[in-house]
């Protein structure tokens, strides 16, 4: 495992997430500075923090990701579309959208498709569908994944982190369903380098975590000779 740790640049996979309800402008500034320092692909924030994050990261490689319908996914399609459009207009280039889990549970796939397709089409941004895999059966995961892929999402994301975290088995399951059609983002409960590497090896292209800096430091410590 240590060999794998040394081979994979964890920083290149991390969406640096600040999604606690009490997040302050000072914390947004801190997370943006960290994301820039370690060259994380994105900093992931609530829509209300998008403008600030975009200003702080102007001209930098790190982009701004906004969560939509977070964390329940139970707001109306109109609200989600507006939230996604506003975040996009404010400078977010990636949108992590929580799907309507009640629709998945009741088999309302047409409504799920229309909602996700409209967000993809109307914003033109990279959309990641948050499936909340811990709350779904394998059959429901497959239905949600297939509908979201048909709707045009670029990523299937395992979790919000509020109701359970990413597992290697779920990442593999989504990888097998997607067959390379979309990418996979693992999110929630990623605390160690070993766990992060296992998720990447299972098929994750992104890792959503608030512990990005801690993970990079863990990996750097492993690289130091004893």
| Count of beta strands | 8
Q: Describe the main β-sheet briefly.
A: 8 strands, parallel, barrel
Mean pLDDT, to the nearest integer, reads: 95
**Unreliable sequence segments:** 1-5
In percent, how much strand structure appears in the residues?
15-25%
Question: What is the string of SSEs from the N terminus onward?
Answer: HEHEHEHEHHEHEHEHEH
Q: What would you call the shape?
A: globular
Give the strand order of the largest sheet, numbering strands 1, 2, ... along the chain. Answer: 1-2-3-4-5-6-7-8
Compute the CA-based radius of gyration: 17 Å
Percent helix, as a range, is: 40-55%
Q: Given the structure, what is the number of helices?
A: 10
Structural class: alpha/beta
First-last Cα distance? 17 Å
Keywords summarizing the entry:
alpha/beta, 8-stranded parallel β-barrel, 10 helices, 8 strands
Reconstruct the topology from this structure:
Elements: H1 2-7, E1 14-17, H2 25-38, E2 42-45, H3 50-56, E3 63-68, H4 77-89, E4 94-98, H5 101-105, H6 109-123, E5 126-130, H7 138-151, E6 155-157, H8 168-178, E7 183-187, H9 193-202, E8 206-209, H10 212-223
Parallel strand pairs: 1-2, 1-8, 2-3, 3-4, 4-5, 5-6, 6-7, 7-8
What does this structure look like?
By secondary structure, the protein is of the alpha/beta class. The chain contains ten helices and eight strands. Strands 1-2-3-4-5-6-7-8 form an eight-stranded parallel beta barrel, surrounded by seven helices. Helix 7 packs across helix 8.
